[in-house]
Amino acid sequence: MQDEGDLVRRASQGDQQAFARLYEAHFNRVYRYVVVRIGDKAEAEDMTQQVFLNALRSISSFNWKGTPVAAWLYRIAHNQVVDYLRKKGKQMVTPLDESPVSQGGSLELVVEQKIDSEQILAATHRLSQAQQEVISLRFASELSIAEVASIMGKSQGAVKALQHSAIVALRQILVAGNNE
Predict the structure, then answer these.
(1) Buried b vs exposed e over 69-87: b needs ≥16 C-beta within 10 Å?
(2) How many other CB atoms are found less than 10 A from the CB of residue 15?
(3) Which residues contact 174 (CB under 8 A, 6 or more apart)?
(4) Who's near 140: CB < 8 A, 6+ residues apart?
């Protein structure tokens, strides 16, 4: 935590290497958060780059108070996702890119995994915005309950309850989809 505070301080003073370290530490998690929320890998990559451009532009005004810089980055990403969804409307189920067959892997297994990923992604988009955000932060970005609570401005208990209700809802959506 102290090291991150030092990186933020140095980045806010124009140290490009410090910002690069923050970028490297957080890019993949922010990207996974965005891709789960919008379902389009190429667009998610562009949006994640924009998150870090926005962060770079405003890092000098970032007020370090011991809270992980990830919370600030996810807030920027969240705002961009909301803007994107507002512009695109509710047509957010976009198939994921084709996955290449790995060496020694079977085409059947790759197809099954792709179908499962698409079903889960489509089901996730039927959840409430808060449930989508919790699922994305917890599972795509692999954040702890405490980190998600900090990012969302909720108590840890509220995040746990929201995560539980999201998982129950996802299970119901997926079971209903398999019975159709």
Answers:
(1) bbbbbbebbbebbeebbee
(2) 15
(3) 119, 120, 123
(4) 32, 33, 35, 36
The helix or strand, by DSSP H or E, that contains position 70, with its residue range, turns out to be helix 69-88
* Beta-carbon count within 10 A of 108 CB: 9
Report pLDDT digits (tens) over 102-122.
444 555 555 555 556 677 777
In angstroms, the CA 48 to CA 30 distance is 7
**pLDDT value, residue 110:** 52
| Pair of tokens at residue 166 | 């999201």
Please tell me the distance from the alpha carbon of residue 66 to that of residue 4, in angstroms, as a whole number. 9
Phi-psi label, residue 105: left if phi above 0, alpha if psi -120 to 50, beta otherwise: beta
Structure tokens belonging to residue 72: 């600030």
> Where do the domains of the chain lie, and which CATH numbers do they carry?
1-92 (1.10.1740.10), 99-180 (1.10.10.10)
H or E stretch covering 5 = helix 2-12
Dist CA 92 CA 34 (whole Å) = 12
Task: Give this prediction's pTM.
Answer: 0.65
In whole angstroms, what is the distance from residue 56 CA to residue 5 CA? 15
| Residue 98 reports pLDDT greater than 70 | no
pLDDT of residue 92: 43
